Amino acid sequence: MKTKLLFLCGVFSIFCGLSLGAQNVNIPDANLKTALVNHSPTIDTNSDGEIQVTEATNYNGDLILPGNNIEDVTGLEYFNNINVLNLDYNNISDFSLNGLTGLTYLTVRYNNLTSIDVSALSSIESLVLRENDLTSLDVSNNPTLEYLNVRFNPLVELDVSYNVNLEEITLSDLDEIEYINLKNGNNANMTSIDPFSNMPAIEMVCVDDETTFLNNLYDLPTWGQPWFLVTTDCNFAPGQLNNISGTINLDAGSGCGDASAIAVPNMLVETSVDGDLFGTLTNENGAYSLYTDEGINSAATINNWPNWLSINPPTSSTTFAGFGNFTSLDFCVNAPTSFENLSVVVLPINDVIPGSMTTYEIVVENLGSGLQSGSVTLTYDDAVQSYVSASVSPSSTTTNTLSFDFSNLEPFHTQKIQAEFQNENNSNLTVGDEVTMTAEVFPNTNDVDTEDNLFETTQTVVANANANYKQVLEGAEIYDTDLDQFLHYVVRFQNTGAGNVQNLKIRDTLNENLDWSSFRMVSASHSNYRVEIEGGNAVEFSFDDIDLPYASFDDAGSRGYLAFMVKPNEDAEVGDFILGESSVYFDFDPPMFTNQVSTEIVENLSVASSDFSAEVNLYPNPTSGLVSIQNNSALQIENVEVYSITGQKVLTLTSTQIDLSTLNSGVYFVKLIAEEGTSITKKVVKQ
Predict the structure, then answer these.
(1) Cα 453 to the chain's mean position, in Å?
(2) Which residues, in sequence order, are CB contacts of 512 under 8 Å at separation 6+?
(3) In 176-261, which ranges are E strands?
(4) Which tens digits make up the pLDDT trace of 209-252?
(5) Which residues, 6 or more positions from 18, have their beta carbon under 8 angstroms from its beta carbon?
(6) Cβ(379)–Cβ(362) under 8 Å?
(7) By the 8 A CB rule, do 669 and 641 touch?
(8) Residue 265, number of CB atoms within 10 A of its CB
(9) What is the pLDDT of residues 303-352, one digit of tens each?
(10) Phi and psi of 644, rounded to 5°?
């Protein structure tokens, strides 16, 4: 009996298999069925007026079905070996393409689509959905997509950030779209025909790079500057926050809208909402993008530059109801008077390690009202460091000094020069020693503030490089008489992980004794970054798409830095400490914390020496040899010390004449020490 049952089951199985092979595809739409039965090339190979499952799955040609009044596409899921599907000029409102995983080309133009699921199309290269009723489209699962056409659809948002192979996209005739995310890492290879035509509702476009977007995916000659926000920051899409954006330009004589206007970078823009502060800095093009809360926003520029600017408008009020709102606000800067002012900073880019290389960056900044030219020198101790190369060829060199010329430096802009030095690996340079580098800028014209023409950086020699490190260049102490001067901070970072880092953030909480309204950037290793400040002290630096190599693959490339400057608060007191550390976020990893820096405000015991300084002169200055000390004060000078520009003591004496004839030409500092410890320092130039 058991044998008979097995025999019957086997026969039934064969019968079932034959029946499945001959099973007809369920095609409810009569127009679709007719189009398939009459299709050329032939699909209905047995000419029975039906489409069997085997006929559908065996067909591997193009499926061309335009203009057949098709409404329901049920049944097409069995055609799993086709590469091309054309359903143009039908009446289809929605459908899923599950099963069509081999499809490379799909066009469904001029239909009534309100939804379409293309998530199964893992091989799709061309997707044409023009003239439909789509309000949303998800192409995040289509990494092979190369061409996308969605013209004349009521889309509100479009995100192609996952479509890394996209080459052409239609960005026109989308009259309801508000937000487009184009940041896919491939903008440089993308094009668009007639971009942003008939797109009145567009508010924000996120891109790889603003310049690339303007060149490849926007029609600048036709439309001029974008009327919407163009940003590389996709963290805040519409609906999460509100945005105020615009540009700040310096009027060069013909108005801020004229081509002659000069972009103002590094200017702080802030808005306050019910006491909450939000701020950002303008970029190199003078553009800013400021995310803020709902409510009444009082937006203004914060004059973190020397106080000679006239800014219009001085402030502007905007009310945001809810979120996802955008407004544009441009500022125009005027210079009421004409004057010259240059400053200089020298940044240590990496550590001083015996036998290794150290790089320094000179940053000359034009704080005046017009173009400036001049020169800058970098002086070093040639006993412990040897010059190797520079990013700009020096105009002249001596045994311990490099000179560089610059010309036509625009207001608000900087000239940056990097110089590399070989550190000695002998008894002249040992761990724990201090190495000093001094930069001095020489304007061609009268400089209204010479105090910032000289900058000195001191580093302690270490045995090993620091990966994530913070340094305050002014050191562990500042005088209470210097609270109106900037503190300069350098934050260095390194990717010590196992793979490249794509997005990097550095967060820094400004100490309560620092004045955030004076905050300015000095420099950064990677130019594509943005700065956001919230609450007057929480600063975030974002390096998107940095693609930072990992150390074991590229040690030099794995490193980076940023430098900023900020003043202490005026009400800081003697004994206060200005503490700070930074946290570095590599992609989604937990933060890496830098060391903590500390600067104490100490009393300047030589304040009483101001009268002493006014009554003491050195002459002649400059000198070729002898310098006389003229002391008209009531204090008696007991000791005289002479220091080189690198901080090395070169002479000690007690006489009223100083003989510099045996010293090399250059700048020296003469420290005059009087009774009761009062001292002053004077600068003298040896010719």
Answers:
(1) 28
(2) 537, 569
(3) 179-181, 204-206, 229-231, 242-250
(4) 888 998 999 988 888 778 787 887 776 554 567 888 999 999 98
(5) none
(6) no
(7) no
(8) 20
(9) 666 666 788 898 888 888 877 788 889 999 988 778 889 999 999 999 99
(10) -75, 170
What's the sign of the alpha-carbon dihedral 400, 406, 412, 414? negative
Half-sphere exposure of 446 (CA within 13 A, CB side): 3
Strands 168-169 and 357-366: unpaired
Cα–Cα distance measured from residue 312 to residue 351, given in angstroms and rounded to the nearest whole number: 44
Q: Helix H segments across 442-584?
A: none
Cα 235 from Cα 322, distance rounded (Å): 18
Token pair 């206007």 in the structure block, residue:
261
Q: Are strands 147-149 and 157-159 parallel, antiparallel or unpaired?
A: unpaired
What is the model's pLDDT at position 332?
93
**Tokens describing residue 646:** 């690198």
Short-list 376, 434, 487, 452, CA closest to 647: 434
User: Is residue 130 within 8 Å of residue 106, measured between CB atoms?
Assistant: no
With a threshold of 0.90, does the pTM exceed it? Answer: no
The answer to whether the Cα torsion of 9, 14, 20, 22 is positive or negative is negative
Cβ atoms of 85 and 109 closer than 8 Å: no
Query: Alpha helices of 80-228 — where are they, by DSSP H?
Result: 210-216, 220-223
Q: Residue length, the chain?
A: 687
Rounded Cα distance between 339 and 370, Å, is: 7
Q: How far is CA 502 from CA 22, 205, 416, 425, 540, in A?
A: 54, 20, 26, 37, 17
Tens of pLDDT, residues 357-399: 999 999 999 998 889 999 999 999 999 999 999 999 999 999 9
Q: What is the set of domains in the chain, with CATH numbers?
A: 242-334 (2.60.40.10), 342-501+544-571 (2.60.40.1510), 616-686 (2.60.40.10)
